[in-house]
Design a protein that fits this description.
Blueprint: H1 10-15, E1 21-25, H2 45-55, E2 60-65, H3 70-77, E3 83-86, E4 91-93, E5 99-101, H4 109-125, E6 132-135, E7 140-143, H5 152-165, E8 169-173, E9 176-180, H6 187-197, E10 206-211, H7 214-226, E11 231-235, E12 246-248, H8 251-269
Parallel strand pairs: 1-2, 1-10, 2-3, 10-11, 11-12
Antiparallel strand pairs: 3-4, 4-5, 6-7, 7-9, 8-9
Helix pairs in contact: 2-8, 6-7
Length: 270
């Protein structure tokens, strides 16, 4: 059954009027259109303006939840007042403060660097044209959006082999393989932990989450298990099923939705 588009109905408005409201937002594919290479991604200026206004609205916390490193995520969104959960939950940056890695993740940084070097060497030796290795220190990504589809099975097998040899874990996303430490943390567990610290998991508070990829399903699933009133939104079309309650079509539609939420929260604060 198709997921319905999100209208700001009276029922949804009530679910977004709690104190506080925590907005948990993926970046790539949600706030920024998907780019051929990670460094080409741009969060539009109009979206940055809405996010900045939300981050300075009383009773609202803006949290970016990304697979990028926290520092790279902050560079991309350009919003100083937001929290940043980076590397799929492996690190956290408070507003205007440097990121800190989880204590149980930091010891795996050397293995991630080793894996990145091994995969990059293979990519050169086997002429994997279009494969991009992104070392994010606590995790790494092997992007294959620009590669020929025939390379994907071999790339997947080799990345998995190297990860297994180093005691690491592999997950997949939109045309990307992610190599991570074998730690039971993801976007959802990290987001819930922060939401609890911000006082946003009780019935009088509000939670909103938006994302476009498989890793964002962790975010939706964990939040809804702990707070069924949370508003969850999948951005864009996908053949994969989603646990999100609603959909919007693309990052532009996401910006329009956030602007509606900004108007609502200004009315709440007045």
């Amino acid at each position: 059954m198709p997921t319905p588009a999100l209208p700001i109905t009276p029922d949804v408005s009530v679910r977004l009027e709690g104190q506080p409201l925590v907005l948990l937002l993926d970046i790539d594919g949600t706030l920024s259109p998907i780019a051929p290479r990670p460094e080409y991604a741009i969060v539009p200026v109009a979206t940055q303006a809405v996010l900045t206004d939300l981050a300075t609205t009383p009773g609202v916390h803006v949290v970016f939840v990304t697979g990028r490193s926290a520092a790279d995520g902050r560079r991309l969104v350009g919003v100083e007042g937001g929290w940043m959960i980076g590397n799929h939950g492996m690190e956290l940056a408070h507003p205007r403060e440097p990121a800190e890695a989880r204590a149980d993740v930091e010891p795996f940084a050397a293995r991630i660097a080793d894996a990145a070097a091994r995969i990059a060497t293979l990519a050169n030796e086997r002429s994997w044209a279009g494969v991009l290795i992104e070392d994010k220190r606590l995790t790494l990504s092997a992007h294959y959006r620009l590669a020929h589809p025939r390379l994907v099975p071999e790339l997947t097998a080799e990345v998995t082999r190297i990860a297994d040899e180093l005691g690491l874990r592999v997950t997949s996303g939109k045309e990307v393989l992610e190599v991570r430490p074998p730690i039971e943390v993801n976007k959802g567990t990290a987001a819930l932990e922060l939401a609890e610290s911000l006082g946003a998991t009780h019935d009088g508070a509000s939670l909103f989450a938006a994302g476009d990829d498989r890793t964002d399903e962790d975010l939706f699933r964990v939040l809804l298990a702990h707070q069924p009133r949370a508003v969850t939104v999948r951005v864009g079309e996908s053949e994969l099923p989603t646990t999100a309650e609603f959909t919007v079509s693309d990052p532009d539609a996401m910006r329009d939705l956030l602007a509606e939420i900004l108007t609502l929260r200004r009315q709440v604060a007045a």
